[in-house]
Amino acid sequence: MTQEHKHSRSNDRAPGRTRSKDARGRRWIRRSLFALFAVLIVVIVAQAVEQIGVAPRLLGQYVERRSAGHGGWIEAIGRRTSAVLQTLDRGDTLPHPALPDWVGAHVVSPPATVRPTGAIALPEQLREALAAAQPGDTIVLGPGTYRFSGAALETARGGTEAAPITVRADTFGTVTLEFDLVEGFLVTAPFWRFENLVVRGVCANHSNCEHAFHIVGAAHHVVIQNNLLSEFNAHVKINGRDGRFPDNGRITHNTLVNSAPRQTDTPVTPIDLVAASNWSIEANLIADFVKAGGDFTSYGAFAKGAGHGNQFLRNVVLCERRLRAAPGRRIGLSFGGGGSQPEGCRDRKCVVEHDDGLMAGNLIASCSDEGIYIKQSPRSRLLHNTVLDTAGVYIRYPESSALVAANLIDGAIRAREGALLDERENVGTPLWALYLAWHPTRDTFVDTAALDLRFRKEPPRVQLAQPGTDLCGQARPQTALVGAFEDFAACRRDRAR
Length: 497
Fold this sequence. Notes:
Layout: H1 3-52, H2 56-67, H3 72-90, E1 116-120, H4 123-132, E2 138-141, E3 144-149, E4 153-154, E5 165-169, E6 175-180, E7 183-187, E8 192-195, E9 198-201, E10 211-216, E11 223-225, E12 228-230, E13 236-239, E14 250-252, E15 255-257, E16 271-274, E17 280-282, E18 285-287, E19 297-304, E20 307-308, E21 311-313, E22 316-318, E23 329-335, E24 354-355, E25 358-360, E26 363-365, E27 372-375, E28 380-383, E29 386-388, E30 393-396, E31 401-405, E32 408-409, E33 413-416, E34 420-424, H5 431-434, E35 445-447, E36 452-455, E37 461-463, E38 479-481, H6 489-496
Parallel strand pairs: 1-2, 2-5, 3-6, 4-7, 5-8, 6-9, 7-10, 8-11, 9-12, 10-13, 11-14, 12-15, 13-16, 14-17, 15-18, 16-19, 17-21, 18-22, 19-23, 20-24, 21-25, 22-26, 23-27, 25-28, 26-29, 27-30, 28-31, 29-32, 30-33, 31-34
Antiparallel strand pairs: 35-36, 37-38
């Protein structure tokens, strides 16, 4: 073959090669543009999700409610959509048959050493002892089960700071009080203490078992310690009366639970604090508070009604554990709750719902709605809390301001409708990630669903936001882990002791 002929064939191939390169180039450009467009769509959707601020579990509930009553196939689509969104956000929604063994441990209260009135052996003797009690008396109930119906158990007079009046069992678990009563203990006088009691509502109609304790009016400096309270709508109700308010109380080391959804239209909130100030609610277990009537909305505990200075410290709040995935909305802890009627407020106006409140060192988990909700409550401080399997933290309305620091939150922190948020050194999860079933914060622990909260990877350390002890009773170092505790093993050691 001549050189000229070779050259001719070479020239013949060149256009094909050029066209092939051009085609590959065009394909590369198209793919790059498509990838860029897909990324852009994802970014826009993620920003829209963050802007709207609705977690998948909340959107699922909304879709299911809106589809109800529109015919079989529409309702079926609504239920299916809700189930998908719930699964993305929550994963396992099956009930857990038991509470974990490391929460709800009761401390041993020391035997009384002041003016014991003698052991109570019969229900009528307890009523008589309450009516006759003087400052410094200790009413000791003998072992057994006491059943009450009819009128509430009232406190006739108060104790003093130096000589409170105490109602107790010598050993926790030996005394059970069964209340077929709208309210069990009606505490209207100051300086009363209640210790080591098992108190259970036994009403056939749930609306007839409202409160184990109703603390009202002049009943300041009341202490409820080391009790098990179950089967009530609002286990402890606190509110003012006739211009007087039961301030400066303490609720500590109690377990407040229900074994079934409450079939009632009345509020379901185990600690329902309205208009009182300076209460310490510390180291309690609050679990399974499901409302199956009315607005289907319940809270673990709230403070509202224009009170101030109330504190939720080192509590474990499990919105739904044995009652997981029941219909309705469960919210963990709140300043402001669902709001108050002016006549029930400390200032008769409720310009704000709560002022200068503190939530620190709490574990809040397994809520179908928000873990923490702040409504019309200025100067709220949320420090070193761990919030898992909830819709996150929500600060709402112009009256609200909150410092949110050093929290470990499996979800988003949101401020809406004019609320002011000072957010520092928290670990959270963006909302868009929840729609992709991605839970990096939840994955910090060995098994969040089982509440095995040993660290799989230790969260970051920050400058201490709240001095004192953590959830497990350990002193926090100056450079502390974000979240409620330094070492989960210490919670188990506490239980072993």
